[in-house]
Specification:
With about 260 residues, the protein is an alpha+beta fold. It has two domains: about 5-140, Fructose-1,6-Bisphosphatase, Chain A, domain 1, CATH 3.30.540.10; about 150-260, D-Maltodextrin-Binding Protein, domain 2, CATH 3.40.190.80. About 40% of the residues lie in helices and about 25% in strands. The chain contains eight helices and 13 strands. The strands form two sheets. Strands 2-1-3-4-5-6-7-8 form an eight-stranded mixed β-sheet, with helices on both faces. Strands 10-9-11-13-12 form a five-stranded mixed β-sheet, sandwiched between helices. Helix 1 packs antiparallel against helix 2 (about 40-60). The termini are far apart. The structure holds D-MYO-inositol-1-phosphate. D-MYO-inositol-1-phosphate binds near residues 91, 158, 189, 190 and 210.
Length: about 260
């Protein structure tokens, strides 16, 4: 498929950062046995990946604004356009040598996400979409799954770790959802969760306590693949509040009702 110039810039940046992270990931696998662990090394890898992405995007589009996980936000000369970047989503997986992490790059225009790239270097899967142009994984067009029966469906979420205040909410969600479905997965990279719903690998995903860089690129990929996404609180806002419930169109209403306590 033929992408726009902006999409090509995003893909080039994601692939370059992906090569850097893939090299560092091989090193992390060796560091697992050391007593010190790989924490500092991984923070440096994360920061280096963000610097690569920022250099590529800023060189190509110097007037756009910037929002990245590892650095301060910068307003661009063009106030209508902004990059939203997570250089390493799934940091904990990366740190533990688990090959499930990704680079996430989104372009926002006038408050709407118009393009997204999520690159998983360990599997060489590049998910991308532009508004109105469909969603793709490498050269394959993406479509959400067609499953409409809850009991045959699997869902993914993120489990609140380290004393986070939203644990009781998630446990209540689980108590309602698990008896009605075929399973719940926790993979550890929210950007890939959205991409996997877009790819029909599971039927839906929900999580609270996220940041806009975890969700932005996945949102346009999911919607272009035919998926539906809303904030868990219907009065809220997905990117501002960092919470999302999404699924294929067949099952969305029933799934969202369960997550919202119905
Ligand atoms: C994390 C992952 C994880 C989610 C966490 C996020 P990070 O992002 O997306 O799946 O459960 O809430 O913070 O920190 O690895 O970029």
């Amino acid at each position: 498929m033929q992408g726009s110039a902006n999409l090509n810039v995003m893909i080039k940046a994601a692939r370059r950062a992906g090569r850097s992270l893939a090299k560092d990931f091989r090193e992390v696998e060796n560091l697992q046995v050391s007593a010190k662990g790989a924490g500092d090394f991984v923070s440096r890898a994360d920061i280096a990946a963000e610097a690569i992405i920022r250099e590529e995007l800023t060189a190509a589009r110097p007037t756009y604004g910037w929002c990245g996980e590892e650095s301060d936000a910068v307003a661009g000369k063009d106030p209508t356009r902004r990059w939203i970047v997570d250089p390493l989503d799934g940091t904990t997986n990366f740190l533990h040598g688990l090959p499930h992490w990704a680079i996430s790059i989104a372009l926002e225009h006038k408050g709407e996400i118009v393009a997204g790239v999520i690159y998983d270097p360990a599997k060489d899967e590049l998910f991308h979409a532009e508004k109105g142009q469909g969603a793709w994984m490498n050269e394959t067009r993406l479509r959400v799954s067609g499953r409409s029966r809850m009991i045959e469906s699997i869902f993914a979420t993120g489990l609140p770790f380290g004393g986070r205040a939203d644990l009781p909410d998630t446990l209540r969600d689980m108590a309602r959802l698990l008896p009605q479905c075929a399973g719940v997965r926790r993979w550890g990279a929210a950007a890939l969760d959205l991409a996997y719903v877009a790819a029909g690998r599971y039927e839906g995903f929900w999580e609270r306590g996220l940041h806009e860089w975890d969700i932005a690129a996945g949102l346009v990929i999911l919607r272009e693949a035919g998926g539906l996404a809303e904030p868990i609180d219907p009065e809220g806002d997905i990117l501002r509040d960092g919470e999302i419930v999404c699924a294929n169109g067949e099952i969305f209403d029933r799934f969202a009702k369960v997550i919202r306590g119905g």
